[in-house]
Structures are given as structure tokens and as C-alpha cells.
Write a structure and sequence with these properties.
Jelly Rolls; seven-stranded antiparallel β-sheet; four-stranded antiparallel β-sheet; about 20% strand; globular; metal-binding
Length: about 260
């Protein structure tokens, strides 16, 4: 792990560091750790991502920001039903090499304990299906991730390569209160109508990000450069034996296994 993570800047096993990270995530809804990955490990991740890009499943979908089916109780232009577009490519866990730095990082007990401590989870487990634990996302020129709220309580991403322009991670913290059933349709309308200015999270390759997206609406703006944006997603569950549904796997990956 010393060859993968800069443990001097980011001492994951140190209680004060964990506590500071958790406080930042609780306060801001996002924790951004620049230069988390060592240069040689980042280069290995980039080479792996480039080499596997021909195996990526590319798709374009239209969806509501709530990632829910159309609600007939509201008109089509209502915030609950307004459609945004997402387009990206993705390779799955079974494409990631056994000796990949991404897999070493994902499987490392110290890293998993760090993430659990920062997010407040008792323990973390990989997905039970063969596709969902580690993904690499690709965005070519013009591709984007449309505005949405996450269903999960937190997400972990690692930027591998960024384009010359565009692909900005934008978000608005606490725009809804999902557990209380408060969807804040008016706030979503203002954002979609550009009457609200989102926060832009600036990051460079090798940056690890923990993000609470269940109540924070967010998007990745269209790639405006010639360089492909490459982003690793490390996904865990709070319970063992959880698999992404077959419908979700077909939608996101184009296959079941």
C-alpha cells in the first residue's frame, strides 16, 4: 500500500486524521483528498484504463434527477418528471486485473477501515455480483453525467485522467431531505432553470473523493476537451451479500456477468 497511497500526507490509520476527515465530510458533504495516489500507481491505473477502454460499455440515457419512473400525478415539465441526459462508458470489476493498484486499494483492510470510520459505517463489504465493486468510467468529448441524486448514502471516486476543459463536478448540498420525504421540487426547478449557482469541486488526477450524494444534487458537465475523462468508482455496501439488480446491471453495464 505504501507504493499506492501517499501515507505521509494521508495517514489513514491515524485517529486524528480519520477524525478530521469525518468532520470535513459531515460538515461539507464531500471529502477531497488531493495526491492520495502515488505517481507510479496513478500511471499504472491510467495504463490499465487506457488498455481496457475497448471493453467499455457506452450508453446514453435520459432520466429524472430523482432516478425514478415518470410520475403521472405531475405534468412532463414538473421537476419530478423533467428529463436530463447521461452518457458515458464503463468497464466492470471483472475487467480490472488481479494485480491492479485499484484492486489492491479496494481490497486493503486498512483502506476499508478508513472509509468505514470516515463515513460512520460499522463495516463495508464488496458487491456480491461480479461487476459492481470496481468500475472505471469514461467520458469522451460531449459526454456528461446529468443532474441527479444518489440512492446510496455515499460514493467513493478516484480521478485518473481529466480533459483540457469541461467535465466539472458541480453540486448543491442538502437540496432535498430524502429520508423525510421532502423532495424540494421548487429548488430542483430553480437549478434546472439556471436560477441557482452550484458549487464546483475542482480536482486533479490522483484525488480521492468521498461524497454524500443522497441529498446533494450533482452532475458532471459535458467534456469539452479531446482528452477522455477517466474516473474509478469504488463501491461498497454496509451489508454482505448485496448485488446490483439484474435490471440495473443491464442498464449500466449491458450485461449480467
Amino acid at each position: 500500500m505504501d507504493e499506492i497511497v501517499d501515507g505521509v500526507t494521508h495517514p489513514m490509520g491515524a485517529a486524528p486524521f480519520r477524525e478530521a476527515c469525518r468532520a470535513a465530510l459531515d460538515r461539507d458533504g464531500v471529502l477531497c483528498l488531493p495526491d492520495f495516489i502515488q505517481p507510479a500507481a496513478l500511471e499504472a491505473m491510467l495504463n490499465e484504463a487506457r488498455g481496457a477502454q475497448d471493453k467499455a460499455y457506452f450508453c446514453t440515457s435520459r432520466h429524472s434527477v430523482y432516478l425514478t419512473p415518470a410520475d403521472p400525478a405531475y405534468p412532463a415539465e414538473h421537476p419530478a418528471n423533467r428529463q436530463v441526459e447521461s452518457s458515458k462508458g464503463c468497464i466492470c470489476d471483472d475487467v480490472i486485473g488481479a494485480n491492479s493498484p485499484l484492486r489492491t486499494l479496494y481490497d486493503d483492510p486498512g483502506f476499508r477501515a478508513f472509509v468505514a470510520a470516515v463515513t460512520g459505517e460499522a463495516a463495508l463489504y464488496p458487491y456480491a455480483d461480479p461487476l459492481s465493486s470496481i468500475n472505471i468510467h469514461y467520458a469522451h468529448r460531449g459526454q456528461e453525467l446529468g443532474w441527479h441524486f444518489d440512492n446510496s448514502s455515499f460514493a467513493i471516486t478516484l480521478l485518473i485522467q481529466k480533459p483540457e476543459a469541461g467535465s466539472r463536478f458541480e453540486y448543491v448540498k442538502d437540496l432535498r431531505r430524502a429520508d423525510a420525504g421532502e423532495m424540494n421540487f421548487e429548488g430542483v426547478r430553480k437549478l434546472l432553470d439556471e436560477e441557482m449557482t452550484p458549487t464546483v469541486l475542482t480536482m486533479e488526477p490522483a484525488t480521492l473523493v468521498l461524497f454524500r450524494g443522497r441529498n446533494a444534487i450533482h452532475r458532471v458537465s459535458p467534456n469539452e476537451g479531446e482528452t477522455t475523462r477517466m474516473l474509478a468508482v469504488l463501491a461498497y455496501n454496509a451489508q454482505p451479500g448485496v448485488a446490483l439488480s439484474e435490471n440495473a446491471r443491464m442498464t449500466f453495464y449491458g450485461r449480467l456477468g
